[in-house]
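Appendix B, example 12.
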Amino acid sequence: MTQALTRTIRQREAQLERAVSRLRTIAGRIPGVVYEFRLEPGGHSHFPYASDGMRQIYGVAPEQVQDDATPVFSAIHPDDRDAVVVSIARSGETLTPWRQEYRVRLPGDRLQWVFGDALPHAEADGAITWYGVITDITERKQAEFALHAAHLETRRFREALDHVGSYIYMKDRDYRYTYANRATLTLFGCDAESLIGSEDARFFSTDTMARLHALDRRVLAGEQTTEEVVTRDADGNRRVYLEIKTPIRDGEEVVGLLGISSDITLIKEHERQLEYLAHYDALTGLPNRVLLADRLSQAMAHEQRLERYLAVIYLDLDGFKSINDRFGHAAGDHLLVTLAKRLREVIREEDTLSRLGGDEFVAVLVDLADTRLATPLLRRLLESAAQPVWHEGQRLEVSASLGVTFYPQAESVEADQLLRQADQAMYQAKLAGKNRFHLFDPEHDRSVRSHHESLERLQQALEKEEFVLHYQPKVNMRSGEVIGVEALVRWAHPERGLLAPGQFLPIIEEHALTEALGEWVIRRAPGPGRRLAARWPEPCR
């Protein structure tokens, strides 16, 4: 063997050793678990390879899942387990990247959120193999970097990292790239050799580069970071990346950083859509019941402080069902959307118009110096609702019934009570002929409620045997003979004592309780064989 050949072999061995060392450094710094997951044709699944990060992510040892993945799925939160299984199956069927957020329950009943990112590979025997990483994205603690590469071959390191959809890279203390996986190289449009020594200015805009350098400075100072970075792609589209970065140390000295960047644009977009659907009506775009409740509560507190009024208007369309029945639901939806726009234009910018569902709307008018100021707006709402709407050459016409209540009131009321009051008033408007508004009367409502409560209490008194009979003789004044007795009903009230008839009989006048109490008196009065006159007594003597 010539000296030149010997030197060449030694140089290649040194290069291989450096490559192995670099990959071990990468795996040892990756926050989470690097793994190979295999789904056999029969449905059996296992992890031929998993780094020791499996303990931190799932609370199980890698050797426990080499032949059976059950311990991993058992560690997944029960509420998320089905979604994870479905997403894995979908990825295997379509051979598209698997990306999923879910919770894991660790020993001690501790929960953490994790993000899985892997690419599937179809094997010749019909099995599907995923190569990927799962990282801890729990905001309450920093990601732990416990992956190490003892006993892992160079090929498996490269294969695992290059099959990961996330962007994995390393930088030195001067912010220059020293390593990147295949996904990162594809993103940057360069190869591994040309990447070495490059800076972010080569790949990112000035603004994005400044943001990335701000994160890098913190990491190179010894901090681990997990943050979202918003940027624009080549077409100007907004992209969101989850950037997880950790220092690379040589002993106590920080010599560089390791970063994992995951594209979470779709996840953030879904979150935005869910947030919108949670607070807005999907058909009209108006605030829904949830957002209405929040705005109404805030408005009530605001008006209370300023000693001004707000109005709650419950609006129900008259004749909407016939529109659906005659012209179809598409016409009905068109009518609702059109009227929602018209009604929103009638009220002020600071007011709220919401749709509760169906043909029911609620408007909240704020900052009223006087309740009478709402009347012109109520008329405009009625006029706007009554204007015809055209759909595919058909003239659609409805009217509206409005129920109105004001706040504050003499008695303390909650937001849901105001809605019920306005709903009751709207019902009265319909009874009065529709296409009009009706104002809720708190005084009348209190009187009705008080009467209803008194009737309920008298019904309870009858059921609890709280009534008693007092008797007084009926005497023939000429002969002095006792010819009968008169039964006098009294209420032995547990708190108020013995009550005379005049204190409770007027309440049940023209009510079924009158007959029930009369029957009770007859049952309790002296039986047959005695002369008796049973009648309602006069005021107590």
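Residues 449-534 form one domain. The longest helix spans residues 3-29.
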